[in-house]
Amino acid sequence: MAFQSPHHVPHCCCCGSPISWLSDEPGSDRPTEQAVGPDSPPVLGGQPTIGADPATGDATPEPDGGTRLLTPIPNPVCEGCATAATTPDGSSIDPPSATDLPSATDSPSATDPSSTSDSPAEPPATPPASGPNPVVVDGVTCWRIGTDETWQLARDALGCESAAEFLRRHTDADGRPLRWFGIDHHGSPRQVRIEPDTVGDITAFCEHVADGTAIRIETTAGARSIDVPVVDVRRAADDRSAHAAPQVSALTAESAPRRLTISPSAIETISIPPQPTVSAPEPDASPQQLDRYGQLASAAPGVIDTAGLAAVARTADPQTQTTALRIVASVLAATPTPGVTAVESLVACLDDGRLSRLYALRSLAHIAAVQPAVVADAVDAVIDTLPADSRLVATAATRLLGHVADHDPGAVVDAIPAFGSLLAPTPTRARRQALATVGLVAKNHPDAVRPLVPQLCSLLETDDTAYRITTTAALGRVTAAYPAAATPAVPTLLAQLTADSSELRANTVGILGDIAAEYPTDIAPYTDELAGLLSDSDPTVRSNTAGAFARIAAVRPRHVKPFVDALVDLLDDSWTRSRVHACWALGRCDAAAAADALAERRHTDPKESVRQRAAWALDRIT
Question: What residue range is the signal peptide (predicted)?
């Protein structure tokens, strides 16, 4: 789960709405000023006015006699949520008032506007002297901070027993608020800091953030400090005594990562810091250093400095090349765009050992997924990796070519023979990807795919429905341009007409209809097998079947006449194409029994194409 940077306009820690008066942008020492005085209305969402004595505290006087805090309170809650707050037993509470605010006229800064204090800010406020505290907002505990008349709500992250404890535990030693909540990618508040007691607390916290997010561990007094963020936090594998206390293991986010083990009792807090950017090791780094950096890239690719990817990919040391390419592949799997600068280096690795070739192909495939045009020039080199002696290499290569074909099918036309050597009735991931790419190419370049038709027909013998659907889609794009190409496969195609998949039935009868366009006599003997599809539950199946009957009726009307009733029923079909095809078929087989139904279509059908074809059919019949 991704969280916003700590440097932003803070959001309500109950609902996630922005609180405009707060700002913790870098370089901003104090929140946006919004005064609340005796003559102004109460503003729950505004900067809180408190009853501190400016002469002794850090509150700053306002022109209207109120005072405002130098620092915001921890975990602020917006006006809307504060208005909805209740006592723990569900009773309503009075909203804050803007009356009877303390005067700031005795403050030194009231008479000397230029006076400032360099001392650290004190805790921002004290709890009201009376009234309910804590209060509840949508099931979460909050504390009223300020005065009885004017207060601001703050969300409790630790289950404190008093407002004083809340302020102490939610601020640092100088009284500055700690960040306990962040806003996730859904706009909802999520806790980004905990004080864990057990390994379970730690692992549960880490499960709520995105994989690879770096966290900061602050250790207790006396424990060895951890001065860099860590990733891959998990329960440590323990080969000690069964009675030993469990520990957690983490990988440091640095160029030479270390695997640390620490006991929960030595951890004060765990939090999500601004995410680090870790540079690659120096070019003369040892294989062991590069391997550890590779572990970091696998666990947390988002923290790797993408600016150095091209240099990492260019490593010439054969001992470290595979590790370097694995690092690049791990990072590009999460963030492909930075790999654009490394394309040339990656292509150069396609002639190297199997593992180097695999990681180079995976990296190029990640890039092709977002910027296929950048990788298009590498197609010839990728084709040379097929047929691969490694299933993983074939999978990466076909995935890459599929991304390029989706952008520009013509760019991978030369890969068709290589795909032919790869395709077989037993589906694998590489074969599925190759078959899908063949279908993409066939759409605009059916001539390039035509030599594969016999092989494509053989794929229909598999039991895998999805594989057969993709096969018939590719075949259909070829037979639309070359109807004769699939005539030897008619018996195999007929066997698909009873498939449970409507998509497979539609594709198959569409191919048979394509064949019937040029060779209707080859399909005419099978009208009995086709007839049941005229009333299929799928509209595409009905339309394609009616089209096949229309083509058969042009030269073999006697094969169509037994099914006039079913074709008449299609005149009321919801699909326009089905009605048009039915008119063609009925006219061509001189179906006098359809005259009344055709006349109704001629005068009442909402589509002009149907009305025109019904009129044509009536002219043929009469």
Answer: none
